[in-house]
Design a protein that fits this description.
alpha+beta; Phosphoenolpyruvate Carboxykinase, domain 3; nine-stranded mixed beta sheet; six-stranded mixed beta sheet; 32 strands; binds guanosine-5'-triphosphate; binds sulfopyruvate; binds manganese (II) ion
Length: about 600
């Protein structure tokens, strides 16, 4: 491989000596190489090639049934002091964790090929981008990284001989003895899985899982957990946010960044098709935003990723047509069902399915009494294939952010849309966000949990310090802070129906948000923030009963007051690290609700 980067070469040699693979392959990033890897996986039975006439150059993978999502209980922040990781992260002493993991890594790639993937998070050469190098023994990870990030020789070129890179080591943790036959999806048992971050030295070590954020280390590990640490040190922001551009009928552009927890609607909102006349939406990113204050004093965002790793179930031509069209070809599907004509299917896709092979590889019919696709089945697709990808999605300077949106999955209490009274109140809203949990993480159960800024599983340091960082960024932005909003698409009626149609109809809420950003309309003061006045939310052509709408917008003071008691208990977990300004917001909210 053509690199003269001595530190990189030394690290690769060191990992090779420890993991003892049969061979080492550097990833160049060509389509020939991609096809060759896929072909090999089809031959070993790890992948199924889909029907070329229906979905060209696309493949289906089935994971081990135990390895289907992120594992939060096996995710660790190994910084020197436990307090710096904070009460919401699992902490282990870095020296101790390295000892444990070195024992696991020793000989762990026997019988396998070790791949070296140089990758860039963000457009190559952007001042906001960062370079990583992932070493992995999973060819599935390689092909996914080829879609999700920019990989290969052009990255090594940008890295030069001395450039900074973030080492990311990954192994599925399943060495092969001489002559031992491989399985379709190798991985290690749960208690041997470690998704480890060493923020003091910008290092990632992952062992035992081959799935999603556990294994595609550019995504949650680098672009959020490590990057959040770098961002705090260097004065920028790494957030679990989609980025979109909304264009109003007059041609005016608005850039919004929205943070919802995993499986709570980011990909859907990022590719939204407005149902209101004259409005257009373009996608810049669907999961992660890196943001920095530019010379004009405004906050600019880039999407560090190059692809979408999206939730498959529920995606249809009706709910998210732009995602469906993105998946027309050149895509990877994991844990979806395989139809009789060699295509994929999942629950909620357009049209029924009479017979398929389910995500476990078993025969399936609607009468089977189980799902055909795993609830966290995912697609991997190139962002460039999205029909509404924004022409500026790879602009190295990013796009200027006009508004932040927070939200989550709340069947009760939280109204459709609220605007923060000011930036500090917005930080309070973000910090107090809560959401019902989803299938995106394996081990969190089903419950309502606080998920500040949708960063609970992704903030790589003490959450209280992260709140302080938000206040500090607000101070630096001064009059140029984006406006902040809170939305909830998921409120249900007393008899369990969605009160809001969601998806494309969410454009109505975004329209109000843009009008507020422009200062075009006034709002109604409520104890929890500003809300649309009667008639201001565009409901033209929407058939929504007045009682339903009233319920959707209802602010139950009692429920919000109870929530403050819970919030106070929650904040107590962080002791005196909680910014005084956050506590002041809590007191102010109490007074407004009294
Ligand atoms: P991650 O990739 O895990 O970060 O998820 P995400 O935040 O991108 O969520 P995504 O857009 O994939 O949506 C997850 C689930 O929520 C899907 O099943 C969607 O169909 C559903 N969903 C998304 N938007 C809406 C909405 O406006 N209303 C309703 N009722 N469901 C929605
Ligand atoms: C999430 O869980 O927020 C995801 C999927 O986007 S994963 O890449 O597995 O983290
Ligand atoms: Mn996500």
């Amino acid at each position: 491989m053509k690199t003269a980067h001595q530190r990189l070469l030394a690290w690769v040699a060191e990992v090779e000596a420890m993991c003892q693979p049969d061979s080492v392959e550097w990833i160049h990033g060509s389509s020939i190489e991609y096809d060759r890897l896929m072909q090999r996986m089809v031959e070993t039975g790890a992948a199924t090639r889909l029907n070329r006439n229906r979905r060209p150059n696309s493949y289906l993978f089935r994971s081990d049934p135990s390895d289907v999502a992120r594992v939060e209980n096996r995710t660790f922040i190994a910084c020197t002091s436990r307090e710096d990781a904070g009460p919401t992260n699992n902490w282990i002493d870095p020296a101790e964790l390295k000892k444990t993991m070195t024992a696991l890594y020793t000989g762990c790639m026997k019988g396998r090929t070790m791949y070296v993937i140089p990758f860039s998070m963000g457009p190559i050469g952007s001042p906001l981008s960062r370079i990583g190098v992932e070493i992995t023994d999973s060819p599935y990870v390689v092909v996914n990284m080829q879609i999700m990030t920019r990989v290969g020789e052009r990255v090594l070129e940008a890295l030069g001989e001395r450039g900074e890179f973030i080492p990311c080591l990954h192994s599925v943790g399943a060495p092969l003895a001489d002559g031992q036959e491989d399985v379709a999806w190798p991985c290690a048992p749960m208690e041997q899985k470690y998704i480890a971050h060493f923020p003091d030295e910008n290092l990632i070590w992952s062992y035992g899982s081959g799935y999603g954020g556990n294994a595609l280390l550019g995504k949650k590990c680098l672009a959020l957990r490590i990057a959040s640490n770098m961002a705090r040190r260097e004065g920028w922001m790494a957030e679990h946010m989609l980025i979109l551009r909304l264009i109003n009928p007059q041609g005016k552009r608005f850039h919004l960044a929205a943070a919802f927890p995993s499986a709570c609607g980011k990909t859907n909102l990022a590719m939204l098709q407005p149902t209101i006349p004259g409005w257009r939406c373009e996608c810049i990113g669907d999961d992660i935003a890196w943001m920095k204050i530019a010379a004009d004093g405004r906050l600019y965002a880039i999407n560090p990723e190059a692809g979408f790793f999206g939730v498959a179930p529920g995606t249809s031509m009706k709910s998210n047509p732009m995602a469906m069209r993105t998946l027309d070809g050149n895509s990877i599907f994991t844990n979806c069902a395989l139809t009789d004509d060699g295509d994929i299917w999942w629950e909620g896709m357009d049209g029924p399915c009479d017979h398929a092979i389910d995500w476990k590889g078993d025969d399936w019919t609607p009468e089977s009494g189980k799902v055909a696709a795993h609830p966290n089945a995912r697609f991997t697709a190139p962002a460039a294939q999205c029909p509404v990808i924004c022409e500026d999605w790879e602009n190295p300077a990013g796009v200027p952010i006009d508004g932040f949106i927070f939200g989550g999955r709340r069947t009760q209490v939280v109204p459709l849309v609220t605007e923060a009274l000011d930036f500090d109140h917005g930080v309070f809203m973000g910090a107090m966000s809560a959401s019902e949990t989803t299938a995106a993480a394996l081990d969190v159960g089903q419950k309502l949990r606080r998920d500040p800024f949708a960063m609970l599983p992704f903030c790589g340091y003490n959450m209280a310090d992260y709140w302080a960082h938000w206040f500090a960024m607000g101070d630096r932005l001064g009059a140029k802070t984006p406006k902040i909003f809170y939305v909830n698409w998921f409120r249900t009626s007393r008899d369990g129906r969605w009160l809001w149609p969601g998806f494309g109809e969410n454009s109505r809420v975004l329209k109000w948000i843009c009008q507020r950003i422009e200062g075009a309309i006034a709002a109604r003061q409520t104890p929890i923030g500003q809300m649309p006045r009667d008639g201001d939310l565009d409901l033209e052509g929407l058939d929504i009963p007045a009682e339903d709408f009233a319920e959707l917008m209802e602010v139950d003071r009692r429920a919000f007051n109870d929530d403050l008691d819970d919030a106070e208990e929650y904040l107590a977990r962080f002791g005196d690290r909680v910014p005084k300004r956050l506590r002041a917001q809590l007191e102010a909210q109490r007074k407004r609700l009294a």
